[in-house]
Amino acid sequence: MSAAFSPPQLEARSDFRAIARWVRSGASVLDLGCGDGLLLRHLIETKQVRGYGVEIADAGILACVKNGVNVIQSDLERGLAGFDAASFDCVILSQTLQAVRHTEEIVLEMLRVGREAIVTFPNFGHWQQRLQVAAGRMPVSKALPYQWYDTPNVHLFTIRDFENFCHGHAIRVLERLVLHEGRRVRFLPNLRGSLAVFRFEKWAGG
Asked: What are the backbone dihedrals phi and psi of residue 166, each rounded to the nearest 5 degrees, phi first?
C-alpha cells in the first residue's frame, strides 16, 4: 500500500467521514462509481475492509490502481448482474445516485448484492436551490456545481423524495445524516441541508 490517505483529502468529503463511521471493521465492501478509489483505500487502511471498487472511467481505473485498490471497470447503468446476492456486507454509492438514469434499479440491485447499502446525494430541497428556482434559474451551488447545459445530473431530488422512495420500496432506513458545509443539520434538514447520507437495508420479507 502506498502512502496513507491524507487528512486534507478526507476533510474535503464530509460524506466520506460519515460513511467511514458506519462501515464496520473487517466488512466486505463494494464501492460503486468509486472514482479514484480514495474512499475504499481509506476504509481498507482504517477499518481493514475487504472489497472492490466499480468505475467506468479510464482515469478512475488508473487512479485506483495507483491507490492500491481492487477495481472492476463496468457501467453501473447495466446493473450488477456479475455479483451474487448478499455477496457484500455493504454497498456504497457516494454522490452518484443523481447522475444515473436507472435510479430505482440501481438501489434495488445494491440491496440484492449487499446486506445493507449507503448512499450520499446533494439535496435539491436546500433553501438556496429553492430560491434560485423561484427566481427562474436552475440552481448552481457547491453541492450542484454545474450549469444546466453541462450537468451530469439527470435526477434532482430531495431528502423527502428519497425517504418516500424507501417507504414505497420496503426499504428500512437505518441511519440518516444531513450536512451543510461539513456540519450536521438537525433542524429542518430538508430545507437547510445540502448533502444527505443514508444507510439502509431491505425490510425482512420485503
From this structure: -60, -45
Q: Report residue 135 as a C-alpha cell.
A: 427566481
Q: How far is CA 136 from CA 124, 133, 190, in A?
A: 15, 5, 21
The phi and psi torsions of 194 (rounded to 5 degrees) equal -105, -15
* Beta strands 183-184 and 88-94, pairing class: unpaired
Mind listing the domains of the chain with CATH numbers? 7-202 (3.40.50.150)
Cβ neighbours of residue 46 under 8 Å, at least 6 residues apart? 5, 20
Contacts of 149 (CB under 8 A, 6+ apart): none
pLDDT value of position 112: 97
Q: What would the 3-class secondary structure string for 42-58 be?
A: HHHHHHCCEEEEEECCH
Confidence of residue 8 (pLDDT cuts 50, 70, 90): low
Give residue for cell 443523481.
Answer: 98
Q: What is the pLDDT of residues 123-143, one digit of tens each?
A: 999 998 888 888 888 777 777
Q: Which three cell numbers stand for residue 91?
A: 454497498
Rounded alpha-carbon distances, angstroms, from residue 198 to 102, 110, 119, 192: 19, 13, 5, 17
Q: Is pLDDT at 151 greater than 70 in this prediction?
A: yes
d(CA 49, CA 140): 36
Q: Which residues contact 109 (CB under 8 A, 6 or more apart)?
A: 79, 80
Residue 3 has pLDDT above 60, yes or no: no
